[in-house]
């Protein structure tokens, strides 16, 4: 495409960008490396159905008519087509394409890398597996390669890393490279979470300031779920065998259901209100769906809770997990809460700030807030309205 962003039709080997993050992104053996800024995706098919691919000339013509949203995104678009239609910000397109390439490679490594031994211990004292470190390096490398990331921070490296991009017109990114890595050996689904903020700040900001947030989900299928600030809904991309991301699903509403994912159940021992809430789900015959991985548990769009107590403090980090997933959930038509407010309204004062959280439909968040604290800010608020 004209902006110089490559169409990754069959994978790409990114060069080593610094000695500090010296792990190259490597394509699966079945994918031959290619890098061509003028590659046009060929027609693809999913389950035998031919997909319409928009000609590049049409995209250029549409682009010239608008400086914001180029044209309507469609199911069947490639990731590059979707981003080109969604934003005229070439830097954001570059960053999201490079992150998509990193996610594709992480998915392959999760399937094939040895996760038996402990590689090291991070600055929080958490156990790290070898695949955690690999995912961490791949994401830092992708952000440097995008040329539009000023600062990045990982849950595994609690320091801002200068990625070489400009603060003006650039972005800062916080990510959890492999959420749920402790369950890799059980063959459960794991994932990557990241949030993107404009400029050079990751503190003194809120989750609502994000320009985009996304998660990569590595399970029976590999998917890339994206939310953009100025585009309604969340948008799911499916990784095809040939290495392409295919737009397969949009979500603009999270309906009421009876499925729950209760994190930090230890807190029910000395948090009677949380105990009452969990007992409600059980008595009302909610279906328990809890894996120990935040990405798959939130992605199934039931009610996800992770509550603190006097003896069991908040574990989830606002910058790396809570705010990006809150952005995705609220863009999908759901709600988030720390018990009193949307998690997107919480100011991120420090890189290690933590929070309790719930994600779900409006009525589930009302129940969460009322049970824990006696009232809810959402009572009387129309669905979809900011509270």
Indicate the radius of gyration in whole angstroms: 20 Å
Q: Give helix % range.
A: 25-40%
Shape: globular
Give start-end ranges of low-pLDDT stretches.
Answer: 1-70, 117-121
Q: How would a crystallographer describe the biggest sheet?
A: 8 strands, mixed
What's the β-strand tally? 19
**Order of strands side by side in the largest beta sheet?**
6-5-7-8-10-11-12-13
Strand content: 15-25%
Quickly count the helices.
8
Mean pLDDT: 82
> Structural class given helices, strands, pairing?
alpha+beta
State the end-to-end CA separation. 40 Å
Secondary-structure element string? EEHHHEEHEEEEEEEEEEHEHEHEEEH
Account of the protein in words:
The chain has 387 residues and is of the alpha+beta class. It is built from eight helices and 19 strands. Strands 6-5-7-8-10-11-12-13 form an eight-stranded mixed beta sheet, sandwiched between helices. A five-stranded mixed beta sheet has the order 15-14-16-19-17, with helices on both faces. The protein has a two-stranded antiparallel sheet with strand order 1-2. A hairpin with a 2-residue loop joins strand 5 and strand 6. Helix 2 runs antiparallel to helix 3 and helix 3 runs antiparallel to helix 4.
